[in-house]
């Protein structure tokens, strides 16, 4: 009987934590896809997974469109530290693109999970 109660307790704990984890990532906004397009450069993709931008430090040429796709189970954002771009809330499967037309270093973060950071270096 004790083994059965331990298993049930463990299952209930996992379910409760899973519900809490998913609820923390919910947003009242709808999926966002936007920005980007045009430009003479080739595209570059960044995956958002496991609360990280992969690759979080990329180098591109002027005119390149970078596309971020949320492959995580919770909502994230792609927000430039200097305010030059902001994806808004990206739920699972949503993407955001931005074309970099000026050389420089652009740092960004997730405004929901501020430890998530990345850099795009444009040459």
What can be said about this structure in brief?
The protein has 123 residues and is of the alpha/beta class. Helix content is 19%, strand content 31%.
Structure report:
By secondary structure, the protein is α/β, with parallel strands linked by helices. The protein has one domain: Immunoglobulin-like, CATH 2.60.40. The chain is built from 1 helix and 8 strands; from the N terminus they run αββββββββ. It has one helix at residues 2-24; strands at residues 44-48, 53-54, 57-60, 64-70, 79-80, 95-100, 104-109, 117-122. The strands form 2 sheets. Strands 2-1-4-6 form a 4-stranded mixed beta sheet, with no helix packed on it. Strands 3-8-7-5 form a 4-stranded mixed beta sheet, with no helix packed on it. A hairpin with a 4-residue loop joins strand 1 (44-48) and strand 2 (53-54). The longest helix is centred in the first third of the chain and has 23 residues, at 2-24. Residues 8-41 have low confidence and may be disordered.
């Amino acid at each position: 009987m004790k083994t059965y109660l331990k298993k049930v307790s463990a299952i209930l704990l996992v379910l409760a934590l899973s519900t809490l984890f998913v609820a923390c990532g919910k947003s009242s906004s709808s999926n966002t896809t936007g920005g980007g397009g045009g430009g003479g450069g080739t595209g570059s993709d960044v995956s958002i997974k496991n609360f990280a931008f992969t690759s979080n430090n990329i180098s591109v040429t002027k005119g390149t469109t970078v596309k971020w796709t949320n492959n995580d189970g919770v909502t994230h954002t792609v927000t430039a530290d200097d305010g030059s771009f902001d994806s808004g809330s990206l739920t699972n499967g949503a993407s955001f693109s931005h074309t970099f037309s000026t050389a420089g270093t652009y740092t960004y973060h997730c405004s929901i999970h501020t430890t998530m950071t990345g850099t795009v270096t444009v040459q």
